[in-house]
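Researcher: I'd like a structural prediction for the single chain below. Treat it as a standalone chain; there are no partners to consider.
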Amino acid sequence: MEELKQRILTEGRAKAEGGVVLVGHFLNHQLDPQLMMHCAEEFARLFKGQGINKIVTIEASGIAPAIMTGYLMHLPVVYIKKKQPSTVNDAWKSWVWSFTRGDETTVCIDRQFLTENDRILFIDDFLADGHASGSVIHLCRQSGAQIVGMGFLVEKGFAQGGQFLRDHNINYYALATIKCINEDNSIEME
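Model: Treating it as a single chain, here is the predicted structure.
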């Protein structure tokens, strides 16, 4: 998606050491609602007619594009919580490594919102090493839900997440793929 690629190139910042991409001005700290809607339109187009009945995301940066995609596709959106609230007594649980925080967190989703009757589309902001995607795969295996596809705003093409999803036969799309981060911290897009 050209609009997203251009925003990453003009407003994004990167740190070659650690492969960090900073897009807080428009994607995951301060949000550009028009950009989020354009991304959602693309996800809705890509996954139209595939029998999806629910969109799933994980706290927190995937929530905005997931909600807008759900709005356009007329589907409910459920998000995986990073801590089990006292209001959720019966949950599917998994673990996810946080690239940005550098730690492992237990994640959960209420069993009533992820069942064997669900055909889900997972939406998230970044695909890096596939840790969040792996936790979604684990949660769906527990519940019997079927993953129809996954959509990411940005894929770090130099990381292992894409290969991880291909190895698990997951149909996925990234709206923008970062080819590499150069030593001078400049970003190259595919």
